[in-house]
Amino acid sequence: MADPSSYRPASGQIPDSPGVYKFRDEHRRVIYVGKAKSLRQRLANYFQDLANLHPRTRTMVTTAASVEWTVVSTEVEALQLEYTWIKEFDPRFNVKYRDDKSYPYLAVTMNEEIPRVQVMRGHKRKGVRYFGPYGHAWAIRDTVDLLLRVFPVRTCSAGVLKNAARTGRPCLLGYIGKCSAPCVGRISPEDHRELAEDFCDFMAGRTGTYLRRLEHRMREAAEEMEYERAARLRDDIEALKKAMEKNAVVLTDATDADFIAVAEDELEAAVQIFHVRGGRVRGQRGWVTDKVEDVTTGALVEHALQQLYGEETGDSVPREVLVPALPDPIEPVQDWLTGRRGAGVSLRIPQRGDKKALMETVQRNAQQALALHKTKRASDLTTRSRALEEIAGALDLDSVPLRIECYDISHLQGEDVVASMVVFEDGLQRKSEYRRFQIKGFEGQDDVRSMHEVITRRFKRYLAEKEKTGEWAQEQALTEDDGRPKRFAYPPQLVVVDGGQPQVAAAKRALDELGLDDIAVCGLAKRLEEVWLPDDDDPVVLPRTSEGLYLLQRVRDEAHRFAITYQRAKRAKRVRTSPLDDVPGLGDTRKQALIKHFGSVRKLRSATIDQIQEVPGIGRKTAETIAVALAQAAPAAPAVNTATGEIMEEEEPGATPGSSGEPVTAGVPDERRGQDT
Is residue 640 predicted with pLDDT exceeding 50? Predict the structure, then answer.
């Protein structure tokens, strides 16, 4: 634990202006990011008597080894920079709302010629209309299934659409009336786009006008005694009403707003968000966070707003955001939201009426979420703590291994040899720290030599970063432009290798050669799940019911999974190689254009040079080179006359080259024949 006075800057050095500050630990990893209206006043609060600090703040400042800051012009800029740095550095002591999943949205791809309705997760794309988020993907599919009867919009993938257009037969939904089948020309792309826009209007809450129009058409059909059409319209109306019942009206004035509620105790906080569009609850989501500092409810709301709208723009940010407490000060946050939306945003606390009643409902959801999370976490924290303590005791470590790295070697009969490194911190996966390696030092299969190479390469990088970021070089510029330590700059307390005594000995030898004696090493052998230590002839056998053994197994299995995934990807990439890869100067774009034009390499191989030239971007000289490369890749293929572009007949035995036309290599310089790219 560091003494904050050892890195406390002089008060006169800190500017009295808005800005963002970063605390770093001894390994130069950013552990906390904050913003302030006055950097001087805010940072002074961290360097007071430790007894006066909140326990979690005290832990942060004693873990830190340095502090630095960046001055900005306004508090709005500080808010934006703070959000950017929290996303970039993922500081361990910051308020981070842990979303237990990526919430699904109902998306309509209006950026395509034939829009598609589908479930989407992750970052939002330009030109796509989003509705939600929803709690479950099946909720979206239920809604879409009801609406497709009235709005038979395309839901199939690009491959299915293309195949249907090629064969002239629509998919099943086209036959049963739940798709208007634009793929086979039953509806024009323009009419289908209009149908998709009607679908979007209905989902956006503009339902009354459309229902009245359908009812009017139903009555007209009945008056004209077109009873079948009237019955279909009646069923359409019932389907729409059933879909609307799934999203009951909660606000009668067609409000577009987000309701954010916070439930908290001294250690944790839960946030619940209801997305209301057109007066209906269109989606719900929730987060949970640790309270690292003694933060107020207003500060938790501010962080929730950053998380919720940090990457949103336009209509994704509603006109109204209703919260249980306002950030202090409110002006920068409100200005930031207005900038994200491009129009005014009202950030306020509901005081009366339907909106206050709905906020109470959201608050109850937040309280239930916090209670459920604490019930799960109590068991989880206890189990992980016991597992780490059991590992420390079994391996005779000085302290519990808060960071564990595990390495595994993977190959297929000695080919495509790769290695993986996975990281667990506090007993949990930290996937952003995962790394993978290609074995470069030798050819063939040797797991022991491979392990030695990987451990050496990983910790050479650590030593290099340690030297750059050591105390003697604090003033020296780092390799990264933004001042972050490069990858591998943070050491583990325990290295686990997948294997027995030979692999453990190789890993230990690599660390000894680098002069590292403060990192423990062990191996977990699959046969009997034995734990091997360096220089011990007998393994450590943990009880089968041990939480420590279970954690080591999880770490080992995750490293094995990660290595296998990488090895299979490399093998698949090697298998997918094409004869076109050997054509000098032929990039991926033109390769794809060739395959798209001809359909396959086989058909391309049988094409004439004139036919190859028909592909956009392919000239005469390139076409000749492609023909040569394909002919050399398949010697049995018929030769090509480069002068005429015709496929030559096979020569009779004993015929001299060129007797029935120019040989395939005519017109190609000698130094290019058979050249590898």
Answer: no
The answer to which of 117-126, 248-257, 419-428, 638-647 has the lowest mean pLDDT is: 638-647
Question: Cβ–Cβ contacts within 10 Å for residue 4, how many?
Answer: 20
403-474+487-573 domain in CATH 3.30.499.10?
A: no
Average model confidence (pLDDT) for the chain?
A: 79
Question: pTM surpassing 0.85?
Answer: no
Residue with tokens 């406390």: 8
283 and 303 in contact (C-beta within 8 Å)? no
SS3 of residue 23 by DSSP: strand
- What number is the average pLDDT over the span 260-276? 86
- Asked whether 193 and 156 are in contact (CB, 8 A), the reply is no
Residue 628 φ/ψ region, left for φ over 0, alpha for ψ in the -120 to 50 degree band, beta for the rest: alpha
DSSP line for 375-409: HHHHHHHHHHHHHHHHHHHHTT-SS--SEEEEEEE
SS3 category, 602: helix
Q: What is the pLDDT of residue 639?
A: 42
Q: What is the pLDDT of residues 477-525, one digit of tens each?
A: 344 444 454 566 778 999 999 888 899 999 999 999 999 888 999 998 8
- Specify the DSSP class assigned to residue 182: G
Question: Averaged over 639-651, what is the pLDDT?
Answer: 40
Please state which architecture CATH assigns to domain 257-371: 2-Layer Sandwich (3.30)
3-state secondary structure 324-337: CCCCCCCHHHHHHH
d(C-alpha 429, C-alpha 422), whole Å: 8
3-state DSSP helix/strand/coil % of the chain, to nearest 5 = 45, 15, 40
Q: Is the pLDDT of residue 645 over 70?
A: no
Residue recorded with tokens 């910790």? 459
| pLDDT band, residue 638 (cuts 50/70/90) | very low
Class of domain 579-672: mainly alpha
Please tell me the distance from the alpha carbon of residue 36 to that of residue 53, in angstroms, as a whole number.
18
Where does the pLDDT of residue 657 fall: very low under 50, low under 70, confident under 90, or very high at 90 and above?
very low
Q: Average pLDDT for residues 156-180, to the nearest whole number?
A: 88
Location of structure tokens 């509806």: 187
Cα distance between residue 262 and residue 532, in whole Å: 48
From the CB of residue 300, how many other CB atoms can be counted at a distance below 10 Å?
24
Residue with tokens 């109306």: 237
- Report angle CA 544, 546, 548 to the nearest 5 degrees: 125
Answer whether CATH 3.40.50.150 is correct for domain 4-89.
no
- Give the pLDDT score at 630: 82
* CA proximity to 535, closest of 568, 509, 570: 509
The DSSP 8-state label assigned to residue 519 in this structure reads: S
Query: Who contacts 84 (Cβ-Cβ below 8 Å, separation ≥6)?
Result: none
Cα(261)–Cα(366) distance, integer angstroms: 6
622 in Cβ contact with 672 (< 8 Å): no
Beta strand pairing call for 320-322 and 257-264:
parallel
